[in-house]
Design brief:
Radius of gyration: 16 Å
Order of helices and strands: HHHHEEH
Number of domains: 1
Shape: globular
Number of strands: 2
Strand content: under 5%
Helix content: 55-70%
Strand order of the largest sheet: 1-2
Length: 122
């Protein structure tokens, strides 16, 4: 599998992890790790900021694929396969149909930033 195929697989696996996370037959530990992975993938704030030369893209090249790989290994194969099939239907014309799933992540980060700013202003 070349790099382009891996990137395409990663693009499909993130929504599949979100779908698997909502299923009742997914193990709890896999749900927790899937939540962390999907949250990190959708988050506008990275662990290593992108404006840092070279280091800023390490999270996109190493951390996120590592999280996805670990989560995929924790989810039973039959659940993951069904979730991947369902995830294919989420994208139309290269854009997600249900983009509103990112709204809670963005709200969380705004609240966190607001809380941090309020702590520094005291």
């Amino acid at each position: 599998m070349n790099l382009k195929e891996k990137a395409k697989s990663l693009k499909l696996d993130i929504p599949a992890l979100f779908i698997a996370m909502k299923r009742s037959d997914t193990p709890i530990a896999a749900k927790i790790l899937a939540g962390i992975t999907v949250g990190y993938a959708l988050s506008p704030i990275d662990l290593i900021p992108d404006f840092l030369p070279v280091l800023g893209f390490l999270d996109d090249l190493i951390i996120l694929p590592l999280l996805v790989t670990l989560t995929v290994k924790m989810i039973p194969r039959n659940i993951l396969d069904k979730s991947r099939i369902e995830a294919m239907d989420l994208w139309t014309n290269g854009r997600p149909k249900k983009w509103r799933y990112a709204i809670p992540i963005v709200i969380f980060w705004f609240l966190l930033i607001g809380w941090i700013v309020s702590r520094f202003l005291r």
